[in-house]
Amino acid sequence: MARKKISADGALYGRGIIIEMIAVGQFMKVSAFDERSLTEVSISGPVTTPTHILQSNALKRLEYVLRKQGLID
User: Per the confidence metrics, is the pTM higher than 0.70?
Assistant: First the structure.
C-alpha cells in the first residue's frame, strides 16, 4: 500500500489531496481523498498501467464528483 499527499493543479489546485494505491491481484485500486470536503473516490485498473495515469484518472474522477456536488466551479 502506498499513500501520499499530492498538490493538484487545475480545479483542484490548493486542495489537500491524498492518493492511496493498493495492489489487489492483477488490479491496482487507487483512491483519491479531498481533505477539505472529506470526499473520497476510487478507481481500479491493471497493475501494468503506469502510476501517473492511474493517479490522473483518480484525480479526474474526484474533480467530477466535487463539481457534481457543487463544491468546486
Answer: yes
**3-class state of residue 68 by DSSP:** helix
Instruction: Kindly report, residue by residue over 2-59, the tens digit of the pLDDT.
Output: 677 776 778 888 889 999 999 999 999 999 999 999 999 999 999 999 999 999 999 9
d(CA 27, CA 47): 5
CA–CA distance, 2 with 39 (Å, rounded to integer): 19
| DSSP line for 7-65 | E--GGGTTSEEEEEEEEETTEEEEEEEETTTTEEEEEEEETTS-HHHHHHHHHHHHHHH
Tell me which amino acid residue 23 is: A
State the CB neighbour count (10 A cutoff) for residue 22.
14
Q: How far apart are CA 62 and CA 48, in angstroms?
A: 22
Q: How far apart, in whole angstroms, are the C-alpha atoms of residue 49 and residue 72?
A: 29
